[in-house]
């Protein structure tokens, strides 16, 4: 079994010195590829180190909306440089976060738009973070248009109908451990009904641990439990679900043929 965790933060301090342990547990549960996401200068630098440490690690690098207040031309130049790394497969996570509101909406929007344009310039898909801002996120993506290679709605938390709207723009829809939560009925409906060739799996480790580890530290290995839940919701075998979602990941990340 070859599960692709399309969004993990093995670069955070919680995992310092534990890379081999985390990757070994992941392999035991069938999780063999990892997209490590850097979202500010510190986490980007840590991600770049991890990419050199193991062939199973790919990178998504960008400036998180909670960091929007520090984005400027110098940051953009830095991103343009690090996004040239050969292990980089996407630009992100970018978007809007109205929960923490560490920067005004208009600042977040400007930074979001600038990074969409940067992704187009560099021919990279975008990985989208949206919290309490789904409608505005959709409006900006629809207005700006996506890069040629589309993008990913990371840890999707909206309705089936909204997911279909994002999909029509060119987005893939990624499900995290939240899909295993008992009350996540809207998300489960989306996971059950979206086209199989447009969905992805992720952990967002160390956050959002799935059942049966909800409330504890999440680990990239636990993508297995997300996969099991989505397969169950769709009424298909785990093997079929994993084969499809991993192929989707290879496609959106431009890795087609590399792991087949």
What does this structure look like?
The protein is 42% helix and 18% strand. The chain is built from nine helices and eight strands. The protein has helices at 19-28, 41-53, 73-82, 105-122, 134-144, 160-169, 185-193, 223-234, 238-252; strands at residues 3-8, 31-38, 57-61, 88-97, 126-131, 151-153, 171-175, 199-201. Strands 1-2-3-4-5-6-7-8 form an eight-stranded parallel sheet. Helix 7 (185-193) crosses helix 8 and helix 8 packs across helix 9 (238-252). The longest helix is centred in the middle third of the chain and has 18 residues, at 105-122.
**What overall geometry do the principal axes of the alpha carbons give?**
globular
* Biggest sheet: strand arrangement: 1-2-3-4-5-6-7-8
Order of helix and strand elements from N to C terminus: EHEHEHEHEHEHEHEHH
Q: What percent strand?
A: 15-25%
The largest sheet is: 8 strands, parallel
Low-confidence stretches: none
**Oligomeric state of the chains?**
single chain
Mean pLDDT equals 97
N-to-C CA distance: 12 Å
Class based on secondary structure composition and strand pairing = alpha/beta
By DSSP, the count of extended strands is 8
Rounded radius of gyration (Å)? 17 Å
The share of residues in helices is: 40-55%
Number of helices: 9
Quick structural gist:
With 260 residues, the chain is α/β, with parallel strands linked by helices. The protein has helices at 19-28, 41-53, 73-82, 105-122, 134-144, 160-169, 185-193, 223-234, 238-252, and strands at 3-8, 31-38, 57-61, 88-97, 126-131, 151-153, 171-175, 199-201.
